[in-house]
Specification:
alpha+beta, five-stranded antiparallel β-sheet, MetI-like fold, 358 residues
């Protein structure tokens, strides 16, 4: 690990303030994605705590809740909560005020602006701390769900799509590009013909076709986006391999009788990793945008899973009303994360340039 930080490329990358800022944002996003259910104010599965009475609240709104026990509740273990969240042990009932009389709590249940209802519960039916106050820093959507919590949990969706997409696109592009560049001839002609066919199809149209074939859902989006982004990688790798295959160390490996697969994997790939990393960062950013677009159009991640694109779709009507932040917040999140990957990609391009100076 220490050798990485002593690498000249890392030293050049550290001097690029934009790239380092992007790296910091990405690290924060990864931490938020992994521990989202522990960080989010609403740690329920998918941050899907629906409280219709408080739908459409503005940023900074504070509400009091009477916490009524549910009939059955089984707390999850650590890993269940890490991956799926913690189901609510209580019903959260919005109230305006409350009073304690003997063994009961009498509350004024909030129904709508200027509308309330008097309710009474015995203390045994309530939580140990029966009344809690919550602040909705970014407001609530039309279903009364906490926008901030869904933004945090949505980070996991965006980063997951980007990661799986990069793995799929790099795997396919690296293999096909290497075969085309190394063997040339008919192999190159066939692979390039296939690349050009895929290249000629608009990305969103191809994603729609694959999504409709595989169905709507979480994993289907990963595969659909990944299968459309390998072309750039293949073209780049082909060009790099065509240049590298003529160098002396490749000729030496051939003279020693090494198999072609070994020469490609052991001797060529490590020497073209720089450009591949740069295009991987660009593909990561593109995958986030494409996933958001698919979810906005209704063919990506499906409710109640929080996707930033889906959140924009659900709340874009609020842009022309008194609460535009409901739709702008996920838009800003997409913009910041995509910008971070683009800045990091540009920084990697400069840092991995063999002509770069310390």
């Amino acid at each position: 690990m220490s050798s990485i930080f002593k690498n000249p490329a890392w030293k050049r990358l550290k001097k690029n303030k934009g790239a380092m800022a992007g790296l910091v944002v990405i690290i924060i996003a990864v931490f938020a994605a992994v521990f989202c259910y522990f960080i989010a104010p609403d740690g329920s599965p998918y941050s899907n705590r629906i409280i219709l009475e408080i739908g459409g609240e503005k940023p900074g709104a504070k509400k009091q809740f009477l916490q009524v026990k549910k009939d059955a509740y089984e707390p999850p273990d650590f890993f269940e909560e890490l991956f799926y969240g913690q189901p609510d042990a209580y019903h959260f009932m919005p109230i305006n005020q409350y009073s304690i009389k003997g063994d009961s709590i009498i509350a004024e249940k909030y129904i709508d602006e200027g509308v309330s209802e008097r309710v009474s519960y015995p203390k045994t039916a309530l939580a140990d701390k029966p009344v809690s106050t919550k602040t909705y820093w970014v407001g609530t959507d039309s279903y009364g769900r906490d926008i901030l919590s869904r933004l945090i949990v949505g980070t996991r969706v965006s980063l997951s799509v980007g990661l799986i997409t990069v793995i799929i696109s790099i795997s396919i592009g690296l293999i096909l590009g290497s075969l085309a560049g190394f063997y040339r001839g008919k192999t190159d002609d066939l692979i390039m013909w296939f690349i050009n066919v895929i290249w000629s199809i608009p990305t969103l149209l191809l994603v729609f076709a694959i999504t409709l074939a595989l169905g709507k859902g979480f994993w289907q989006v990963f595969i659909a986006v990944g299968l459309t982004m390998w072309v750039n990688v293949a073209r780049l790798v082909r060009g790099q391999v065509l240049a590298v295959r003529e160098l002396e160390y490749v000729e030496a490996a051939r003279a020693l009788g090494f198999r072609n697969i070994r020469i490609i994997a052991i001797h060529i790939w490590p020497n073209i990793v720089g450009p591949v990393l740069v295009i991987a960062a660009a593909n990561f950013a593109s995958a986030i945008v494409i996933e958001a677009g698919l979810s906005f159009l209704g063919v990506g991640v499906q409710p109640p899973m929080p996707s930033w694109g889906l959140m924009i779709k659900e709340n874009y009507n609020f842009i022309i009303t008194q609460n535009p932040m409901l739709a702008l917040a996920p838009g800003f999140a997409i913009m910041i994360l995509v910008l971070a990957f683009n800045l990091l990609g540009n920084g990697l391009r400069d840092a991995l340039n063999v002509k770069g100076k310390l």
